[in-house]
Amino acid sequence: MAERRAKLAEIDPVWARIMREAEEAVVDEPLLGGLIHYSVLHHPTLERALSYRVSLKLANAEMSEQIVREICDEAYGNEPDLAMAARADITATFERDPACLRFLQPLLFFKGFQAIQAHRIANWLWKQGRKDLSYFFQMRCSEVFGIDIHPAATIGRGIMIDHAHSIVIGETAVVGDNVSMLHSVTLGGTGKEEEDRHPKIGNGVLIGAGAKVLGNIRVGHCSRIAAGSVVLEEVPPCTTVAGVPARIVGKAGCDQPSVEMDQLLHGKA
């Protein structure tokens, strides 16, 4: 057993850690033993565990858990980047969210993480031309998690959505790598035009609670958007914007705002 664990840790350290934490959690709280065994310990890989978890959440009377799970398995089997992005999301959540004490928690309990993984599968379906099925995934994510992400939206790796209630991300939005956002963020359009109409969020950006970024505008790498702001114009890299409408109020304050999660204003530009 120890040798097998060591090999797993070399091949897939994220999954090895989740497995170890799951075993510890069963000892700590036996009443969760069934949930943890079915969700984690019964599965040979993170991919299979993700398929199980997503299918359990999204299945309903119209689409059985077995069918949803087969769709998820197909997606993970054909696109390895989906599960690699999930590993980056788990690591990001653990590193940035002080309420996350184990890698196990996002997989079992955090709806922001779970909704992003469901979206990744919806996005894969969209790219395969299976748009109606991708809309089903979007609908169920909205109903189950309170998060509405169009299946065509592009989401990078290492995403952390804290609390994750009332997130809205539009069809032509692009979210870069290592982005952090809090609840009630909207990445929306400004009208009924059908062309490219949603924001482009750079890498390492921190978006505060309740912020609205509207229109086909670019938010530069490693910038901060203060809570409650309404952003209608492009944001230069490494700056902080705040207000309604948002204006530049200072520098970003650090190299990686999305990692530091510092939302205080520390002086003017």
Automatic annotation (TrEMBL):
Instruction: Family membership, please give it.
Output: Belongs to the transferase hexapeptide repeat family.
- State the encoding gene: cysE_1
Protein name in the entry: Serine acetyltransferase
Choose one Gene Ontology CC annotation of this protein and give it.
cytoplasm
Keywords from the named record: Acyltransferase, Amino-acid biosynthesis, Repeat, Transferase
Q: A Pfam family name for this chain?
A: SATase_N
Q: Which GO terms describe its biological process?
A: cysteine biosynthetic process from serine
GO-annotated molecular function:
serine O-acetyltransferase activity
Protein's organism: Pelagimonas varians
Question: Which pathway does the database say it acts in?
Answer: Amino-acid biosynthesis; L-cysteine biosynthesis; L-cysteine from L-serine: step 1/2
Reaction(s) catalysed (UniProt annotation): L-serine + acetyl-CoA = O-acetyl-L-serine + CoA
Q: Do you know which CDD domains this protein is assigned to?
A: LbH_SAT
Q: What is its EC number?
A: 2.3.1.30
Spell out the InterPro entries in the cross-references. Hexapep, Hexapep_transf_CS, LbH_SAT, Ser_AcTrfase_N, Ser_AcTrfase_N_sf, Ser_O-AcTrfase, Serine_acetyltransferase, Trimer_LpxA-like_sf
Gene3D superfamilies hit by this protein: Hexapeptide repeat proteins, serine acetyltransferase, domain 1
> Per its UniProt entry, what is the enzyme's top EC class, as one word?
transferase
Acyltransferase listed as a keyword: yes
Start and end residues of each Serine acetyltransferase N-terminal domain: 14-118
